[in-house]
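User: Please fill in residues for this 626-position structure.
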């Protein structure tokens, strides 16, 4: 949610360094973008302050920003900060776009997060004569820093430090000033990474804009501030000015992981990566035969998990759907009750957490504000925190007592695909491991599930090999006459129905609802007609017969039916309008297969309708506000 990039160092920023970095972060928000370039005295001189800062902002993405900039822009500068925005305070407009500059021009900054007490600060600033040109909380922060700077005999760093002490909320900020050559950055609850190159620093919301230049990265901690002086000297401190030793990590991210690699979108690339990403999640953990599963991250809290009276799963969006599947798996295999909550609701429902309960947080990004806030509350109430997270070293990973990394690799498409199957694979391993320890699974079932799990990546591959047939089916439903879809399933595939509907909504803007197939007759059946297709997920499992009856109910009302079935199902071919086959597997593992055709269908319908699948309107990948 909002991407920030900054550069200071030996090279000229040119049109690439900061703008390409912002392009890599556009998945975090793309309703407006901006860049502030700082020139050295001599290059361009400001009578009042010394340095000149030029600020360019535009509605839309980074390409629109670049197109809006005049040819005369001087790209020979060694310092710039940029931003790509997901609007919270104020509509997407030039005025509301970042960077924001204080009224007296002394402070220019970009910000990711929310300043919760901005109204109070703004009121005070207005009393002091400040005038605002935007509706944003960020402009308030820029002015607040300037106000503190002007009214105390302090330097730039101290002004930022003091100002941040007055701030309630979340922020990752990059701040520059025309009166000094320092670049200041700070974080609280929003991620910020500093790439440390040879004579240069690239600062960004995550590692993706950095790895092109250096793999040595410092992840700033909450309540830390860093300053780069004269483009070379980096100091990190807390808000009381106590200096902290920098902890430089070597990141493994390769450039080809963050490029499209011949696919026309990140989403399609990520869908196709799933045989590998699911295998990467299983590899090393899924042992042979009777051997216990190797899950190092789980061991330290395994006793708590096995003794838990209740397990809560908290997550948002697609991760919440993975959580529902996790509930099915854990309850079926271990008989421990599991409650799945939206993270955004959890905090406010006064949840009944008892000593010994375990909270599992599921998050692709590991930065989702709602999930983090729910975890904080769970911790206060004494729960053990367990994380199922994709991004290594992210906030949720660090807040958890223990956990499992899904190892899905960076996911750039805003609509989650490979991260979802990674989460489901990780939860499957966890449930099997717990069941084995509790003896709540027979030897035979243990061996059967492990063997079947091993074949899942190959089976995903075989579904993908048939994607042309799936696109062909999707093409029959892409026209404007279909504005509502139902996704129906039972049991462990009901969450897949929710996920299928969400995927279609997110990227094609078609209204879609996931419903338990048996519940359809209690309401949604009223929607069924020839223009409201139903997508049934009906593998050959324990609820097969019942779902087939539900399908007949739709057919009797002239509803079109697309059915996801197990290979060789002849009965459903006689009922459904279109059938997509998946290979046979154990019932508990079917979500890992049934979701694949749904991802491909949504992709295909959205592209046929001319939608940008990687950057759906109004969405952001990493939602760092509550
Ligand atoms: C956003 C994204 C969704 C994602 C959700 C939870 O809304 O657009 O794709 O499922 O956040 O994100 P997380 O990173 O916690 O899994």
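Assistant: Residues filled in for all 626 positions:
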């Amino acid at each position: 949610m909002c991407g920030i990039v900054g550069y200071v160092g030996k090279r000229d920023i040119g049109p690439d360094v900061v703008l390409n970095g912002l392009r890599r972060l556009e998945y975090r928000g793309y309703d407006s973008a901006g860049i502030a370039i700082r020139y050295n005295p001599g290059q361009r001189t400001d009578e009042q302050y010394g340095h000149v800062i030029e600020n360019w902002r535009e509605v839309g993405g980074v390409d629109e920003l670049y197109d809006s900039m005049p040819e005369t822009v001087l790209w020979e500068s060694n310092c710039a900060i940029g931003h790509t925005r997901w609007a919270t305070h104020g509509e997407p407009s030039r005025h509301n776009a970042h960077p924001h500059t204080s009224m007296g021009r002394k402070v220019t900054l970009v910000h990711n997060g929310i300043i919760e007490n901005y109204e109070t600060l703004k009121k005070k600033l207005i009393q002091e004569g400040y005038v605002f040109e935007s509706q944003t909380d960020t402009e308030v922060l820029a002015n607040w820093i300037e106000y503190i700077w002007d009214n105390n005999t302090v330097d730039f760093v101290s002004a930022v430090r003091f100002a941040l002490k007055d701030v309630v909320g979340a922020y990752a900020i990059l701040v520059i000033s025309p009166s000094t050559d320092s670049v200041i950055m700070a974080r609280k609850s929003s991620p910020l990474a500093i790439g440390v190159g040879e004579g240069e620093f690239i600062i960004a919301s995550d590692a993706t804009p950095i790895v092109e230049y250096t793999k040595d990265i410092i992840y700033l901690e909450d309540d830390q501030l860093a300053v780069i002086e004269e483009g070379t000297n980096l100091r990190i401190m807390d808000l009381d000015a106590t200096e902290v030793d920098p902890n430089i990590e070597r990141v493994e991210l390769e450039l080809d992981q963050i490029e499209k690699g011949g696919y026309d979108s990140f989403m399609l690339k990520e869908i196709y990566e799933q045989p590998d990403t699911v295998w990467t999640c299983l590899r090393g953990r899924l042992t042979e035969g009777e051997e216990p599963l190797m899950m190092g991250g789980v061991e330290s809290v395994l006793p708590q998990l096995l003794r838990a009276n209740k397990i809560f799963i908290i997550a948002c969006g697609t991760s919440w759907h993975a959580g529902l599947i996790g509930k099915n798996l854990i309850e079926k295999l271990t008989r421990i009750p599991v409650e799945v909550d939206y993270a955004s609701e959890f905090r406010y429902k006064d949840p009944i957490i008892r000593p010994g309960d375990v909270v599992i947080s599921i998050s692709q990004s590991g930065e989702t504000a709602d999930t983090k806030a729910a975890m904080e509350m769970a911790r206060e109430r004494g729960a053990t925190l367990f994380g199922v997270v994709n991004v290594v070293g992210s906030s949720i990973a660090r807040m958890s007592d223990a956990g499992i990394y899904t190892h899905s690799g960076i996911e750039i498409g805003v609509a989650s695909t490979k991260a979802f199957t990674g989460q489901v694979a990780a939860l499957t391993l966890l449930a099997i491991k717990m069941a084995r320890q509790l003896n709540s699974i027979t030897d035979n079932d243990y061996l059967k599930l492990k063997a079947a799990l091993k074949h899942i990546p190959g089976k995903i591959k075989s579904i993908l090999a048939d994607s042309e047939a799936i696109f062909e089916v999707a093409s029959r439903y892409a026209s404007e006459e279909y504005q509502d879809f139902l996704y129906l399933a039972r049991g462990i595939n009901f969450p897949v129905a929710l996920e299928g509907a969400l995927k279609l909504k997110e990227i094609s803007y078609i209204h879609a609802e996931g419903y338990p197939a048996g519940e359809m007759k209690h309401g949604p059946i009223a929607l069924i007609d020839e223009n409201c297709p139903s997508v049934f997920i009906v593998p050959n499992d324990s609820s097969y017969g019942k779902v087939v009856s539900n399908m007949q109910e739709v057919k009797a009302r002239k509803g079109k039916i697309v059915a996801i079935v197990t290979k060789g199902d002849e009965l459903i071919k006689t009922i459904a309008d279109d059938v997509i086959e998946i290979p046979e597997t154990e019932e508990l593992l079917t979500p890992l297969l049934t979701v694949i055709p749904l991802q491909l269908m949504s992709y295909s319908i959205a592209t046929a309708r001319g939608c940008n699948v990687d950057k759906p309107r109004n969405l952001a990948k990493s939602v760092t506000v509550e």
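For context: The longest strand covers residues 32-39.
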